[in-house]
Amino acid sequence: MNHAPVVILDFGSQTTQLIARRVRELGVYCEIHPYHRPAAEVSALAPRALILSGGPASVTDADAPRPDPAMLELDLPILGICYGCQLLTQSLGGKVAASPLREFGRAALGPRAPDSRLFSRFSDSPVWMSHGDHVELTPPGFTVTAKTSDGLVAAIEDPSRRRFGVQFHPEVHHTPGGKDILAAFLFDVAGLVADWTPAHFIAETLARIRAQVGDDGHVICGLSGGVDSAVAAALVNAAIGKRLHCIFVDSGLLRKDEAVEVERTFGAELAFSLTTVDARERFLGALAGTADPELKRKTIGRVFIDVFEEAARAFKDAAFLCQGTLYPDVIESVSVRGPSATIKTHHNVGGLPERMHLKLIEPLRELFKDEVRAVGRELGLPERVLMREPFPGPGLAIRILGPVSPERIHTLQEADAIVRAELARLPNKHEIWQSFAVLLPVRSVGVMGDARTYEEVCAVRAVTSVDGMTADVFPIPHEALGRIATRIVNEVRGINRVVYDITSKPPGTIEWE
Question: Which is catalytic among the residues 169, 218, 245, 347?
């Protein structure tokens, strides 16, 4: 991008991505970098401001994460949040100590200094705290501009050096006036302009794609019908037109009528160059008798790569592969929190560029999911595509617990269609992040008419979330649950019992496998 960024140094906070999202919502481009990146490399990015994130450590610990000392000497406005505030305090000559009152959760601010730069746009609202240490002594040149109702330091400022710190989290939803504080820092202190818009992004991205592909280059794209691949394809299509060749692989593991919908939307309605590969028998044959969820995922990933590679051979002029990589994927690859346990393997087109000797085009790698939708909207994609709920790459195979068969796929497709249809009637349907049915590998006794039945159990799942990293149960009204259960049992052969999954993430995952 041709934007001088705001750089956010990540010290391991769970809300670092939220800081970036709030900054971008204000129309300012920003990037997240690990705290240990050398100051010279950050300076080479020509940043306009620096934000220090929170983090789980205590700055009083000997092994606490600390940036390059030269970082805090850069001639930039700096805002420290929570751990970042404490780091500023300690590094610049103040004192941080264990708090006499641990502050976690909602807190009220007392009177603010009337000449505060950070609070110039702020109106009274609660703030969200999450810390065990506090600023005991401010560094030379700093003044306390806000305290909590308990008398502890909540904000410090040194406007002459453009150094600011807040003990609370302005980025979270529970600090309603947090955006006002970030706006004051970005616009009033750093003098930034809100020029990060979908229109600007599209114009710059189209120029970059044309320069990368050239006047006669061809691109192939694996189109699933999901938001990410759809918007990525739309950008490349807008840049080079019919030299983009979309390949849609019908694995037979899609939701009811989904293959028809993808062809209608992208082939007929949007007039993309679209090739559909019917690989249903191939996927089902490879999955026959497989019940282990990890083996299902790996099998599907392997077959997908084989099928996609074979289909792509028809486009001999293609030298590029378009992928819908998002910014969170990029951030995770340089996570400061280190390797995490593998909960389950994720399915994507990993391995394709190297195997097929293709160069990657990743037009969305600087965007968060909400920004992707905004770009898609600007490009004129239908709302039904943009607001499509996340759907796993392995499809219904991981929503069918136990072996996958054509009969069980059909059963789940019919049940899932009923769940989605009934939830679509709810006035607050837009609050649902993901909703679906799961076919369980257990049978239960039932009575239908005067006959005994012994059929499978269907679980209904609906959650709310922001990014899928955590999720709460969506409270489906009892009346709607009753309609769902009644319709599934009456209309779907093979199911005689319906249950509702009320497990949050964590401890559960959104998908059952």
Answer: 169
